[in-house]
Amino acid sequence: MNKSKFVATQNKYVNNGSKHLHTTADNSFVNCVIANDTPKKIDFLILVIETLQINATESLLLKAKNIGLSDDFSTRVQFWKMRCSNPLRNSYTFSSLTTDQIDSLVQLISSMSENLYPLIRQLLSTKESETLNQERWSLFTSRLKSLIRERMNIQRSYVASLLREDNNEFFRELLVILSLSCGEGGAKRLKASLYHQA
Predict the structure, then answer these.
(1) Distance set, CA 120 to CA 95, 125, 159, 171 (Å)
(2) What does each of the 198 residues of the chain score in pLDDT, given as a tens digit?
(3) What is the C-alpha to C-alpha distance for residues 184 and 112, in angstroms, rounded to an integer?
(4) Could you count the other beta carbons within 10 Å of the beta carbon of residue 104?
(5) Which strand (E) or helix (H) includes residue 32?
(6) Domain residue spans in the chain?
(7) Which of 17, 104, 176, 187: disulfide with 110, CB 3.0–4.6 Å?
(8) Which residues are within 8 A (CB) of 173 and not within 5 positions of it... i.e. 6 or more apart?
(9) pTM for this entry
């Protein structure tokens, strides 16, 4: 998925209409609802962050503290419970993320993406040698698939399809989302991808 397609997809979600979903921080999401795949998408975005950075969980919790997020991010257990709202996980808890939790996770992912942008850019680059790109991509996908096998229910057909050698489109899409989550307006762009018009 290229950047322009992703941005265009996001823009259609933004509606300054009326009063369906109330958020104190941003009126552009009025009359929008959380997309069904939001817990899955958030969890996989964090999984990519864990793929790109060693000891990512500690970094995520420290970042959450530094940007003043809630007690949901105070311990590994609380953070893990939020991520288990992803129905593809081995430890799925049948719980739902609240709008406040989504807002906090969006801030956290956006902030972490800023730090990891040089690595994300390298993986998405088409300007370097094909051999170097393939080496980087191979290391990245190998590590990500290892985490997927460890955390996700591999009996699910969707998870099994992600582990196929030739299926990298979803991984590229996640990297593009993270790249667009950086910088000014990054959190807003990420949030737009998690909602749809009611």
Answers:
(1) 31, 9, 23, 11
(2) 444 333 333 333 333 333 333 333 456 667 778 889 999 999 999 999 999 998 898 999 999 999 999 788 888 899 999 999 999 999 898 888 999 999 999 999 999 999 999 999 999 988 888 889 899 999 999 999 999 999 999 999 999 999 987 768 999 999 999 999 998 999 999 999 998 766
(3) 14
(4) 20
(5) strand 32-34
(6) 37-191
(7) 187
(8) 1, 6
(9) 0.82
